[in-house]
Amino acid sequence: MGKVIDTERLTLRHFEAGDADFIVRLLNDPSFIRHIADKQVRTREHAVHYLENGPMASYRAHGFGLNLVQLKGEGTPIGMCGLVKRDELDRPDLGYAFLPAFCGRGYAFEAAAAVLEQGMTAHALYSVLAVTLPDNARSNRLLTTLGFRAKGAVDLYGARNNLYEYCR
Predict the structure, then answer these.
(1) Alpha carbon distance 96, 107 (integer Å)
(2) Closest Cα partner for 115 from 150, 58, 162, 68?
(3) What is the pLDDT of residue 4?
(4) DSSP assignment, residue 83?
(5) What is the signed CA dihedral for 167, 119, 44, 30, rounded to 10 degrees?
(6) Of 40, 2, 4, whose CA–CA distance to 23 is shortest?
(7) What b-and-e string marks burial along 57-74, b requiring 16 or more CB atoms within 10 Å of the CB?
(8) Residue 168: predicted pLDDT
């Protein structure tokens, strides 16, 4: 699949099966497991399955999904960011995760702002949701900085999450 978005410092593109090694690394990072979930993706084969039945299936079903985030020009993969349509939520939500070495540099904000702009325009969305654990201070701060408003709480995957909404 091709490029989705270019920002000043980043390129976001659709995931491919060849990104499996990066997915194993990202999904097994302790911060991913703590703040998002343990997806039980331990091998390259598990990662290909995750990609084919997650982001790649979402592109086909909804026209959007999680994208690989790379440093522009270098191609170094640093995280993922995109819109996700979960059965548990009535509207798409913003999803993102970055390797710890690339946190605190504004990459998540840059990627998320671009995803919101492109995704809402391309898919005629009036609002997008986001969920995050209450103790994930960095993620809660990012969402409010992006312009999301707290809407309450929602239970997802066995945990109580803050629920946010972003409206145009």
Answers:
(1) 11
(2) 68
(3) 82
(4) E
(5) -30
(6) 40
(7) ebbeeeebbbbbbbeeee
(8) 85
User: Is the distance from CB of 96 to CB of 138 less than 8 angstroms?
Assistant: no
Q: How far is CA 148 from CA 79, 118, 127, 144, 164, in A?
A: 21, 16, 10, 5, 6
| Assigned fold of 3-167 | Aminopeptidase (3.40.630)
CA atoms of 149 and 57, how far apart (whole Å): 29
**Confidence check: pLDDT of 1 > 60:** no
What is the model's pLDDT at position 119? Answer: 95
**Would you list the domain boundaries of the chain?**
3-167
Structure tokens at 32: 């991913």
Please enumerate in sequence order all residues whose Cβ is within 8 A of that of 103, keeping only pairs 6 or more positions apart, or say none: 138
Q: What is the pLDDT of residue 157?
A: 81
Specify the pTM: 0.95
The structure tokens listed for 59 are 């592109």
- Distance (Å, whole) CA 92 – CA 127: 8
pLDDT mean over 117-124: 95
